[in-house]
Amino acid sequence: MTSDTLTMDDLPGLAGRELGPSSWLRITQDDIDVYADLTGDDNPIHVDEAAAAASPFGERIAHGMLTLSMVVLPLREIYRVADARMGIVYGYNRIRFPRPVPSGGRVRLHATVADVTTISEGFQVTLALTFELEGGGDKPAVAAELVLRHYR
Questions:
Q1: Which of 5, 34, 82, 95 could make an S-S bridge to 144, C-beta 3.0–4.6 Å?
Q2: Which candidate, 122, 118, 133, 125, places its Cα nearest to that of 25?
Q3: How many CB atoms lie within 10 A of CB 1?
Q4: Does the predicted model carry a pTM greater than 0.85?
């Protein structure tokens, strides 16, 4: 499940490498409620059991952005650059939420190194991410490209 420790010198040759999967991560109703409180996104499909039951989803579901924001723990499990002086999230490309995550559902992260480019003092790495939903079939819960920068 875990990847080898990577170094800055490894990064230029990583394009095309598959990473993961990570361990399963459960998204609880408490996670959903806290996220709703923090962001103000109190859409009933996330927080109201009766309203969600009457929706096309049939139950409360996690916010797509909540699922995406939980990327750090599983990503650290499958991708870590040990000798970078600093690493930052530079941004995301093409975020999609093809399958809802039900309250209490479990996801795990898969990644492919889509691109590595040289930048001043380091590298920019684009990871094609998918969050697999346990029991969810072939369609991912989240698909996105994460752009990271690692500095020497």
A1: 95
A2: 133
A3: 11
A4: yes
- 151 - beta bridge partners? 86, 122
Burial (0-12, 13-18, 19+ Cβ within 10 Å), 138: exposed
140 contacts 125 by C-beta, under 8 angstroms = no
The encoded tokens of residue 148 equal: 């990271």
Q: What's the CA gap between 130 and 20, in Å, rounded?
A: 10
Q: Is 66 exposed, middle or buried (0-12, 13-18, 19+ CB in 10 A)?
A: buried
Task: Find the Cα–Cα–Cα–Cα dihedral 67, 69, 70, 76, rounded to 10°.
Answer: 140
Residue 134, CB-side half-sphere exposure with 13 Å CA sphere:
13
Q: Using one digit for the tens of pLDDT, what is the confidence trace for 112-149?
A: 999 999 999 999 999 999 999 999 999 999 999 999 99
Q: Within 10 A of 94 (CB to CB), how many other CB atoms are there?
A: 8
**What pLDDT, on a 0 to 100 scale, did the predictor assign at position 3?**
62
